[in-house]
Write a structure and sequence with these properties.
CATH superfamily of the domain at 3-352: Catalase core domain
Domain Catalase core: 63-355
Cofactor: Ca(2+)
EC number: 1.11.1.6
Shape: elongated
CATH architecture of the domain at 3-352: Beta Barrel
GO molecular function: catalase activity; heme binding; metal ion binding; oxidoreductase activity, acting on single donors with incorporation of molecular oxygen, incorporation of two atoms of oxygen
Keywords: Dioxygenase, Fatty acid biosynthesis, Fatty acid metabolism, Heme, Iron, Lipid biosynthesis, Lipid metabolism, Metal-binding, Oxidoreductase, Oxylipin biosynthesis, Peroxidase, Plant defense
CATH class of the domain at 3-352: Mainly Beta
Oligomer: single chain
Amino acid sequence: MTRQQERLVGEAPTVRESPATEQYERYVGGSPEVERTIFERLARDLMRVQLKIQRRTGAPGVERTFHAKAILGVENARLRFRDDLPEELRTGFAQPGAEYPVIVRLSNAGGARQPDFTPDLRGAALRVQVGPEEAHDLLMTNFPVSHARDAREFVAFARAMAGANSTLRKGIGVFVKLPMAVGWSTATRMRRNVTAGTGRQIRSLAIETYWSRGAILWGQAGPVRYRLRPAAGAPAAPPASQSDPDYLSHELAARLAGADVVFELCVQRYLDARSTPIENGAADWPDEDTPAIPVATLTIPRQDLDTADARAVALRIDQLAFDPWNTTDEFRPLGNLNRARKAAYEAGSAHRRGLRFLTPAPKRNLVVGALLQRAFGALNRVVSWDRLPTWVGLLNVETIRQVLRRDNLIDTEIRDAPPKAHPVPPPIEEDVRTRRTYDGTFNDLSAPMMGALGSPFGRNLRPVYRPDLFDEPNPLVVSRELLHRDTFIPARSLNVLAAAWIQFQVHDWVDHKRYPAGTKSVEVPLPPGMTWTNTPGGGPETVMRFAEDEGARPMGSAGPPILTANAASHWWDGSEVYGGDESVAKSLREPDGGARLHLEDGHLVPGPDGIPITGFRENWWLGLSVMHTLFAREHNAVCEALRGEYPSMDEDTVYHVARLVVSALIAKIHTVEWTPAILATDLIDIGLKANWSGPPENWLAHLGLWLADEHALKGIPQTLPDHHEVPYSLTEDFVTVYRMHPLIPDDYEIADHASGRTLHTLGFNDVQGSATETVMRRAGLANSIYSFGIAHPGAITLRNFPRALQAFERNGEILDLSVVDLVRTRRRGVPRYNDFRAGLHKPRLRRFEDLSSDPDTLARLKDVYRTVDDIDTMVGLFAENPPERFGFSDTAFRIFILMASRRLQSDRFLTVDYRPEIYTPLGLDWIERNGMTSVILRHCPELAGHLPRTASAFAPWRPAVPEGHDGTGPA
């Protein structure tokens, strides 16, 4: 939500006619899109109301926001339309003599379960089951108008009265909180409506009349309001009890034990915006203007409600989520309150059923957080966070993350606006509750497509789409002057396993699908006098071509094509090992359908092109082969352990539990080992380990987090999922900062781990593509891992891009990946470096000298770029002087601290479902006891003597001393 949209939430609504529905409806904020965003904010407010009610009433779980206590639940009622149904009202399922089964739920309207004699409104919910794919939910209350004119007033009242279970609290809510939220005159009118609706004693819900209060479309007949009234001759009820808390249930049970309960369904037809307003839920449609027309009869048949079957039915109905949008377009709801119900009912019912979660920040965190943001904002203009004492620096980083969460999560999903009717959602299959799906669907059970394969990349910064600057300055010139590696610059604190690891991870996280080579290409003009060969065996050309991204489309209803879909799932689900769809995943398993992944003598099985059959096969080289082989073996080891511990577990379950375990172990390794290795400071080590396991036992740290971010007081696996008010996705900005190709060396020495003797000296082209597996099988996994462990990757800096990747053959194209990285970043609308850093709350550069003090770098930057605002994002990230012992820039780190915890926090399998019932006790123990070192040693125990003693497996290893050397110098 933009700040402008957030302000609208707290203001009186402005409205305009929408061209599509100008006959009936007007949208808050001026458009369906803005209104939808506002309503989503209001829906979260109602989820907070649910939590407040739970806390104040001591309920064991989250209840319905309203209508929490059911009085009746039956599923054998019948709705029959009249034979003399007026011609103009015959549409859709409303036909003369048509009869349908109906589920009926009658209830008290309050959000807390209170005695029936407590003053309250009462409600009726009907689900008319027309056919297997068509149902219509009709929701009504026993007062003709709402206390609220619109959704904003409705939510304000709910917040003011949430959990008000005493006279004092009700008084404070009505006379203090409500007037503060909506104004005194509006509060008075709302209070008057509520008093009128709740002020009389209810003898029986069988003789009450229930009104829809909002309108629905009735096909070509236009808008109607409907009501349910007792049929003529309904027996009277005894006086209301003042002692039996469930007297309404008992009265209905006694009534139904002896006779049917019958109601008439009636409709009132729309006249005009003045007499019968659509948008104002507090306005009555007077019977004298638009009389109620009987259209159908609802019959609840005689039955015994005091049986086990009847109680089971009532319990089942109590779990249902009734929603007026469970209907068809022909009968869709109309008006502000009904449109708000779309977001509110979906959020509230998902919250109640444990499908969606909310973790509101305590007020002290909001107050202290605001103070810290101001304090650190001022301090960081003088001293950067990385130069502060460790614990103060940690609090500074946490404050930066809170600001980034507020300002730098942008939802790019295209949603219904205005809302559309839909069928009743089918029940969630049990398998998807306990297993990661192949394509990432149903991680968030309330939004099954969130983060799934094919969902769009999000944004951390507003995109800047400038086709006129796609080729300015020329990407080839940028590459040759600022990226090309003349001399290898090593990162001496790491080994090449760290380079292989991050590519292994990126292939799990992100994949931009491209058009097939030669079908739709990006063309990059070359500088005068330069040519490029675009295909193997092709001739020289004056343009460089490479495949265009598929499926780019606008972020909104109009605009440039800058939104692309992820061809991988956004979740940390091991898809690079397991595949991103069911057919691939199953093809990687043992041929007999076993749980293990199919290996040949411990190695991956090559495909017809020589590249192994695995979850992700592009850009294949020895580093990926090492990681894929290692974790395929790890999966099989987990399978064997599960079989031994749980012999009755079937093979499919073994496979899925093993996948959960290995995926979580990979996430843990990246969080607590790889990242602290590349950002090698105590602050980062403490912070990242706290992300997984909670903060260390330090009273100052605990006090600071208790004040600033209570939710950080425990490791993310012990918390509830939290999307921070924006549906989860990885972002184009995240993709940009993980362009870490300089880590890849051009030359490789394959050595024997036992003797230290060099076996082969190879270039990158000798260890990539179809040549990879020959090298891997000849050297073996242990020697390959050892060779990477004793070698350094390249530093992530300017003029260190691998030469081999500047003339790289892939899928029938010859690519300069440095140029491809520059061009794709520009074309995807990622802001240039100065705008990028400013958007992440860092000071803008005023001159080139603000970026670098190196004379050669400055000369090259000034030669290539006209101004500092033109510097490419990747170039700026590489040029920036990082904090001490950091492997990449502070600007890139801003994206990292925002997205690193988000990838864990949003994933239910790494939060609420990180539990023994899902993973098994053995599985959780496996994750907690293991890391990169133990994984390597499980499959290559002969490497034990070479691994670092006090650092992670991504730090440089101890090399073996070759024969003929005494370990102190040349032989």
